[in-house]
Amino acid sequence: MAWDDRLRKAQYESPTGTVLTFDYEDVGYEFTKNGAVYDFPDEAGSFVQDLGRSDRRIPLRIIVWGENYDFAAEDWMDALGEPGMGRLSHPMYGVIDVVPFGPISRRDNLKTEANQATIEVTFFETIGAIFPALQLDPALGVVTAVDEYNKAASDRLKQNTNLETTPEQSQLKGPFQLLLDSVDAELGAIADSDAAVKSQFEAVRDSINASIDTLIGDPLTLAFQSSILIQAPSRALTSIAARLDAYGNLLQSVTAQSFTTGLGSAESNKFHSANLFAMTYVTGSVLSSLNNQFQTKTDAISAADVILSQMDNLVVWRDDQFEALGEIDTGEAYQQLLEAVGLAAGFLVEISFTLKQERVFTLTVARNFLELCAELYGGVDDDALNFFIDSNALSGSEIIEIPIGRDIVYYV
Q1: What pLDDT digit, counting tens, does each position of 218-235 carry?
Q2: DSSP helix/strand/coil, 235
Q3: Contact, 240 vs 303, CB < 8 A?
Q4: Phi and psi at residue 281, in whole multiples of 5°?
Q5: Same-domain pairing of 306 and 188
Q6: Closest residue by Cα to residue 241 from 179, 285, 195
Q7: Is the pTM value of this prediction over 0.85?
Q8: pLDDT per residue over 112-157, tens digit each?
Q9: Which of 269, 301, 322, 406 has the most CB atoms in a 10 Å sphere around its CB?
Q10: Statement to judge: residues 287 and 158 lie in one domain
Q11: Domain carrying residue 404
């Protein structure tokens, strides 16, 4: 395969989800190698401290043309002027999170190159606002973002699937039922730990299963009910680790699948259904973090890391599948999901500063765990004892006596 066979379709997705394609000329990028130079008296030479590198700066000359090129050029200028992070699908360098930075110019050569405009812009690769500023009620902000995601994701399944005929509906029914069955198998046990959650989970599950023959032809309703089913166990009164693991396992099961073009609407329908479930699994983790009373800073930061990692894995998988199928994501549901993940991560980082900080020391003599717990926490009760045992994973023999050399974790 030659280099020109590896070129991608050139497009830019603005922060609000506007997708624009473009032609281009020669391309390139640059980055800055950071460092600090230290010179010392009476010493020849310098010491250079390597401080890594900046992200890429990608200058582009975007070309739009045709009888309506003026409208297209204005759309570009509007999109490049939007605040926030966009996504550049570069013909050579892949899909990159970017922010347009510096001067952005448009030139219309009406005399020499009629029906054409060139736009000069430099995109800066960015990690974005991973932890955006929280609202007055950060929990409400997360819930609102998830609600908006549910609406957008349901609409996207309706718009992106072709289920007009009975054969098309029949081809999707089996794969969609498998997705529902995996949700029941993985999240059913989580839901069982809470009576109210179990009741809602079973009611939605039974409703979908009883009406699947009809719902498969109504993707808007099917998607919305599936999202509610997936998200219900996030409120269960079980450990945050168990909930995050369950949603992570489901996400992994979907992202292990791949889809290819050339198989008609059936393959596309299967992908968009799998994509709905994969994205909604991440919202399940987001809501799980919201519906949890964290005790330690470590636990809160760990939950944020898990959610961000799930999002990263989802993005890579989605990009690969859209490219393989030759389709473009208009981004409405993705943008709402990104907002929910960012707000949840920010919420977890924010509350971590108010939680207990982990400390570790090594026993120099064997200790009775009751005495040690009382010494560390200023007394003993059932909650303190259970917390001490769980945080140190004490075995049965260690509850009698903790041996010398054992690392002990406690929180202040």
Answers
A1: 999 999 999 999 999 999
A2: helix
A3: yes
A4: -60, -40
A5: yes
A6: 285
A7: no
A8: 777 788 888 888 887 655 445 444 466 788 899 999 999 999 999 9
A9: 269
A10: yes
A11: 358-411
